Amino acid sequence: MKILYSGFKGIMHSANGGYNKVTYNNVNKTVLYSEDQPLGRFFYTRVLYHIPRLILEFKTRILRYKHDITHLFYGELTCINYIPYRQSQKHKIVITLHLDIENNWKQKRFIKFLKTMDGIIVLSTQQKKILNEKFGIKSVFIPHGFDKPSFTKKIPADINNHVICNDNINVCTIGKNYRDLETLEYIIQKNHKIIFHLIGIDHTYKSILGQYGNVRIYNRLSDDEYYSLIELCDYNFLPVTFATANNTLLEAQSLGITSILPLIDGINDYAYNGNLFYKDKEELLKIFLNLQKNRKRYDLINFSRKYNWNNIYTQLNQYYLEIYQK
């Protein structure tokens, strides 16, 4: 069985964090990345970014006929206009979904497109439930993988040249997708003695949250700096309104860092029950008011191993076989 992987490298993630690791699967394969196409350097810009995606999709539609399974591993992000694939008994199409299906801006076309897929992989049970109950589409939940990173300790400075101080209670908050800015600002305001380290946030967050004296904002970090900072923090705070796989949670658990998490389905699929969970702002505030300095937790590290990519590859390869034999 030969697999065609089509997607992108995900340079916005850490080296261990992207779903492009799916292409490292030890199978007979061909890999197509948007970044490697003509004008691929524009893939992450607002100028000409459609061109490498269109080229990728064109190549994928041709090369699929030389492969048994084509896996669109960043499906909704690389398929431009959701033009349905021609169905074939010999050349099957599998797609992985990453985003909130209900808020896809081309939802009707997208759902029609999904119904032409031979297999659909979702990264949370919440996605699976929505697809089935709202759209009558079957899918399979196969978790996002993550391998514990190896790195050289390198402590970064924030945009004001501050470095982390271990005398403080340090909390990291990473990323911007589906983040609850209102809740994050509320907690920052109520906890002046806790230092919040913000990584990977956009200009809106910087302008609003940068005014607080207990906030440290970082520009893009190297992997060594990034993992060193997470490991030095006492907690990882993830105020999200929607979640599929969340790299930040997987990263924190692999490093033994306790996370503070909302009780939503996409979080429960990946979170160790020894993390801290909240239902609303009142519960969240109680958690923060009672925080103490925290140590690395080896129960978290042990739990995180279930998401090692080798375990995920086994599930993926079994699913490929099921789809191929249909």
Output the keywords.
326 residues, alpha/beta, Rossmann fold, six-stranded parallel beta sheet, 33% helix, 17% strand, globular
Molecular structure report:
With 326 residues, the chain is of the alpha/beta class. The chain has 2 domains: 2-145 and 308-324, Rossmann fold; 169-305, Rossmann fold, CATH 3.40.50.2000. Helices cover 33% and strands 17% of the residues. It has 12 helices and 12 strands. It has helices at residues 50-63, 75-78, 107-114, 125-135, 181-190, 203-209, 223-232, 247-254, 265-268, 281-289, 298-304, 309-324; strands at residues 2-7, 28-33, 69-72, 92-97, 119-122, 140-141, 169-174, 194-199, 215-218, 235-237, 258-262, 276-278. A 6-stranded parallel beta sheet has the order 2-1-3-4-5-6. Strands 9-8-7-10-11-12 form a 6-stranded parallel beta sheet, with helices on both faces. α5 (181-190) links the parallel β7 (169-174) and β8. The longest helix has 16 residues, at 309-324. The mean pLDDT is 92.
Quick recap of the structure?
The chain has 326 residues and is of the alpha/beta class.
Topology:
Elements: E1 2-7, E2 28-33, H1 50-63, E3 69-72, H2 75-78, E4 92-97, H3 107-114, E5 119-122, H4 125-135, E6 140-141, E7 169-174, H5 181-190, E8 194-199, H6 203-209, E9 215-218, H7 223-232, E10 235-237, H8 247-254, E11 258-262, H9 265-268, E12 276-278, H10 281-289, H11 298-304, H12 309-324
Parallel strand pairs: 1-2, 1-3, 3-4, 4-5, 5-6, 7-8, 7-10, 8-9, 10-11, 11-12
